[in-house]
């Protein structure tokens, strides 16, 4: 039996700044039993409450689906080492932004077709998207992004990352 090492993930969840929502989420996570053990705590990052979870990478899609099935809206999902990329929902503008989702099996035509079906269900919303390897790049509003993550997760599509795109280079000014 191969033991999967634990990874630490941070979830930026809508309405987590409210005590009742935090209590409801804690109650859900203490009553649920996973096949693999996991640990969780709610931490404050950049003046916003986030859910930090340690679990194997293979269990992450099931965890995202569980949270989505219980009507918690995930805005960002990142590895804890990338927690500096989290943007508090209070500071997010309502205008369109670029997002990236890492989806397992996106090169498989069946999975890609399921994702396209989900994206086509958002025709009433303004959304632009394109595919590149295992990433789905989306330009839309934060509210639509949260609904998209929830819909993808409840349709059994494995999401491993969902956030604003990470910058790979730093801008420098030459004078």
Can you give a write-up of this model?
With 175 residues, the protein is α+β, with helices and mostly antiparallel strands. It folds into two domains: 6-83, 2-Layer Sandwich (Alpha-Beta Plaits); 91-163, YebC, transcriptional regulation domain (Alpha-Beta Plaits, 2-Layer Sandwich), CATH 3.30.70. Helix content is 27%, strand content 30%. The protein has four helices and eight strands, in the order βαββαββαββαβ. It has helices spanning 19-31, 60-69, 109-120, 142-154, and strands at 6-13, 39-45, 48-56, 74-79, 97-103, 128-132, 135-140, 159-163. Strands 2-3-1-4 form a four-stranded antiparallel sheet. Strands 6-7-5-8 form a four-stranded antiparallel sheet. A hairpin with a 2-residue loop joins strand 2 (39-45) and strand 3 (48-56). Helix 2 packs across helix 4. The radius of gyration is 16 Å and the shape is globular. 25% of the residues are buried. The model has no long low-confidence stretch (mean pLDDT 88).
Short synopsis of the structure:
With 175 residues, this protein is an alpha+beta fold. It has helices spanning 19-31, 60-69, 109-120, 142-154, and strands at 6-13, 39-45, 48-56, 74-79, 97-103, 128-132, 135-140, 159-163. Helix content is 27%, strand content 30%.
Chart the SSEs and their pairings:
Blueprint: E1 6-13, H1 19-31, E2 39-45, E3 48-56, H2 60-69, E4 74-79, E5 97-103, H3 109-120, E6 128-132, E7 135-140, H4 142-154, E8 159-163
Helix pairs in contact: 2-4
Portion of residues within helices? 25-40%
* CATH topology term of the largest domain: Alpha-Beta Plaits
The termini sit apart by 58 Å
Tell me the overall shape.
globular
């Amino acid at each position: 039996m191969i033991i999967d090492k634990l990874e630490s993930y941070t979830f930026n969840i809508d309405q987590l700044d409210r005590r009742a929502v935090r209590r409801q989420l804690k109650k859900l996570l203490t009553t649920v039993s996973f096949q693999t053990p996991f640990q969780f705590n709610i931490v404050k990052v950049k003046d916003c409450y986030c859910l930090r979870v340690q679990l194997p990478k293979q269990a992450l899609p099931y965890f995202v689906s569980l949270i989505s099935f219980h009507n918690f809206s995930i805005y960002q999902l990142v590895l804890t080492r990338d927690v500096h990329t989290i943007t508090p929902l209070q500071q997010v503008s309502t205008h369109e932004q670029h997002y990236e989702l890492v989806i397992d099996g996106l090169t498989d035509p069946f999975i890609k077709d399921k994702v396209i079906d989900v994206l086509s269900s958002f025709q009433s919303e303004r959304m632009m998207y394109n595919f590149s390897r295992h990433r789905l790049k989306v330009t839309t509003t934060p509210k639509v992004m949260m609904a998209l993550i929830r819909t993808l997760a409840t349709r059994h599509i494995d999401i491993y990352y969902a956030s604003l795109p990470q910058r790979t280079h730093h801008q420098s000014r030459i004078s």
